[in-house]
Give the backbone structure.
Amino acid sequence: MKLLPTIILLSSLLSVAAFAEDSAEPERWYQVEVMIFKNPITETDNPESWPSFPDIKHPSNFIRLEGISEILTDNSETSEQSEHETNTPATAVELPAPESTQGLKAFKALSEFERLMIEQRETLESNSRYKILFHEAWNQPVPGRDNIIPIRIDGGERFGRQSELQGYISLYVERYLHLSTDLHLITYEQSSDPFSVIGDVNDSLNSEQTLDNFGGISLLNADSLSNNQISRKSNQFFISVQSAQLKESRRMRSREIHYLDNPDFGMLVLITPIEIK
């Protein structure tokens, strides 16, 4: 008889565990659409001052969207090997997309016909003072805060192997949807002589030596730099002369278009739940 309470207690615990397993929330999937655009240049004084060089905080791991469109110009480095060498340091590990659920492919760019912010894009394109830097939609599971994996964003024109727009966004659930951004809009100046922009260098160094006086960066390896200060195509160098940052965290409502901005560029975000049967 003394064993009876113990048996009842164990049975109750097993029942609760089984119920919790059966009633666990299914993985939540969303269609995410992001549009980032450059704002018109204003003549008024801007109270925000931006540094010359972007200070992008690269996460230890990230996911890169698959199949996104790029804006290529005469300044772009189009070498096939440059695709995954661009903009990220060796310490940042690019993770594979998670396994698809119910036929959904995670972090793969959707077609233009599957995007929802068509009207907003047409409005921006009708005004030549705006420039769209990035517009993509994709499906993804949204993790909890403890399992965030940042998504790499590259957009705008390419200068050598560097993009005009660079950074990361993170989407997670903590009772509500949350979005965090750390994006940089970088202005590059082209020069065949990077020192004319960087400043004077030690005359004792020659072009075959590693130059450490520009933030510890080797100009000879400029096409694979991780800090985005300088990029190179052939004998032309692209040096960062200004970087505007959009760093913000905000609670999101699904099915609503959210607007984030700073004086230099803005961002529209639409997150739509996907019902998985």
